[in-house]
Amino acid sequence: QVQLLESGPGLVKPSQTLSLTCTLSGGSISSGDYYWTWIRQPAGKGLEWIGRIFSSGSPNYNPSLRGRVTMSVDASKNQFSLKLSSVTAADTAVYYCAQAVAGTRWFDPWGQGTLVTVSS
Amino acid sequence: DIQMTQSPSSVSASVGDRVTITCRASQGIYSWLAWYQLKPGKAPKLLIYAASSLQSGVPSRFSGSGSGTDFTLTISSLQPEDFATYYCQQGNSFPYTFGQGTKLEI
Q: What is the pLDDT of residues A40-84, one digit of tens each?
């Protein structure tokens, strides 16, 4: 059974880069059959799709974050990563990673999420 | 971006009740719609995909319907573990977007 676990700093200073990693267990990130996705939820707000990346690359990002987002896959560690640059308080949120079967457009499973706070 | 509007934003119900949540898309999305259940501190759970298909392992009291712009999630007989927040999500076009959520309270 596939499980995803987010990890990374819980506190990031304004203007710095937020870096998170999602580790996959129970499956292979390089199987080629999945998109690897990041979603976030600011406190008290709804969910926002950040973007996705195929195991071979070819990311798609939310235009609202374009220019600040970079996703990558590290098959040797069975991980994929999110980098968000020039963060502000508006980027404070719970960040989730999730899997989507190639050819589908929904997410399952998800990680439990990790809270990232942007504050000096 | 496609806007997803859920209603109600919150609903109070009792165990055994039937509850329906609606989701409206700002433009047609065919059947590219999913429903998720979120509970604090837990991984979100996919309930329904392709508007009406029940995800494996999800109890049959959950059902989805609709196509185009109007969709519904129905819980036929609420159980204690169903009290959570529910979100719809469109997968018709980038960026994928979610509704604002419906909090189901006792």
A: 999 889 999 999 999 887 899 999 997 899 999 999 999 999 999
Confidence (pLDDT) at B3: 98
Check residue A8 and report its DSSP letter.
Answer: S
The tens digit of pLDDT for each residue in A15-24 reads 999 999 999 9
Four-point Cα dihedral A20, B36, B56, B60, nearest 10:
160
Residue from A5, A22, A37, A105 to probe the interface with B (highest B Cβ count within 10 Å): A105
- Region label for B73, one of left (φ > 0), alpha (ψ between -120 and 50) or beta (otherwise): beta
Please judge whether B95 and A112 are an interchain contact, meaning their C-beta atoms are less than 8 angstroms apart.
Answer: no
Could you say which DSSP state residue A37 is in?
Answer: E
A–B CB contacts, 8 A cutoff, strictly below: 57
Chain A residue with minimum CA distance to B101: A46
Q: What is the DSSP string of chain B?
A: ---EEEE-SEEE--TT--EEEEEEESS--TT-EEEEEE-TTS--EEEEETTTEEPTTS-TTEEEEEETTEEEEEESS--GGG-SEEEEEE-SSSSPEE---EEEE-
* Confidence label for B100 from pLDDT (cuts 50, 70 and 90): very high
Query: Which of the four pLDDT bands, split at 50, 70 and 90, describes residue B86?
Result: very high
Do B43 and A112 form a contact (C-beta atoms < 8 A)? Answer: yes
Task: Compute the nearest-CA separation of B96 from chain A (Å).
Answer: 6
